[in-house]
């Protein structure tokens, strides 16, 4: 893998950039767009034309409306939603997932992968945004390692956690490609650490397939703006 700034790996799938077939949802509800409405009270989502002249000029000159700036804001919002969904106690309870640092990280990796899998469909246009989103994820991983009290060999911790993400992402890519029960098996290995029978991952598999299918029909603009919402369980 190519290294990015601060010795961080650039996000790039180890599998081909082929478009995956939409997987039928096995959840109780049909897949639907995850797009959320723009909040007109949020200045970050307001078009430049709706602002007063002096403010529009100042923000434009400052690069606020540049594509890069919009991608940074969108990437941070998208990761904030991933973090919120991945931190919900009810999600873990509904799927029988024990709350540990490793399993919390595995669930976060799963949601990050779902978003990156969707962005891959955009080809070259999605690469820059994917990197920004991935960097937000890695910044949060670093904060969580620090909050967990790790002070020794922090760099090795971060490298191991990043390898975990890449390994999980590749296994999910391959599972979607192969079909059948491969996704449940991958989830059982990665999220449940192989504990118990693979059937315990079936509910989580339905959750993932539902969101992969829903993200597939979510407008690209909503994903890049970070205006999506994962299912909540409380």
TrEMBL record:
Basic residues biased stretches? 1-11
A GO cellular component annotated for this chain's UniProt record is: mitochondrion
Q: Where is the Ubiquinol-cytochrome c chaperone domain?
A: 94-230
GO annotation terms (biological process)? mitochondrial respiratory chain complex III assembly
- Composition skew (Low complexity), residue ranges: 12-33
Q: Which domain of life is it from?
A: Eukaryota
Q: Where is this region: Disordered?
A: 1-46
InterPro entries in the cross-refs = Ubiq_cyt_c_chap, Ubiqinol_cyt_c_chaperone_CPB3
Give the family from UniProt.
Answer: Belongs to the CBP3 family.
**Name of the protein in question:** Ubiquinol-cytochrome c chaperone/UPF0174
Organism of origin is Ostreococcus tauri
